[in-house]
Write a structure and sequence with these properties.
Length: 111
């Protein structure tokens, strides 16, 4: 119920994925810890939202360290570097990086 595919692709062992929830929590995941899903697979759960009902707001895969900006619904951009985002496991909660208050949610990552 309410699940959706937000990204589909193949990550190599050296690739990384940055994810942000709509409420500004982010984390960096190493490609080597994400198992390839086969036909009929259920995907990979990257955040456990529980009763909060949150969703993934933005994501990007990258090969090398770089700058990027997180875009919010009202147009605010928060500029960061990939190395600022703490590498975590799939089961970790993430850390707050973007102040997303009320309906000014995270909507995209601008490279």
């Amino acid at each position: 119920r309410g699940d959706a595919v937000r990204w589909a692709g193949q990550l190599s062992g050296t690739d990384q994925l940055i994810l942000f929830t709509e409420h500004g929590y982010g984390k960096r995941i190493m490609g080597s810890i994400v198992d390839t899903q086969h036909r009929g697979g259920k995907g990979v759960r990257s955040f456990n939202f529980g009763k909060s009902g949150g969703q993934i707001g933005a994501f990007t895969a990258f090969h090398e360290s770089r700058n990027f900006s997180v875009l919010q619904k009202r147009g605010e951009l928060t500029t960061m570097h990939t190395d600022e985002i703490i590498a975590q496991s799939l089961s970790d909660k993430g850390k707050p990086y973007v102040l997303a208050i009320l309906d000014n949610t995270v909507v995209s990552i601008v490279l």
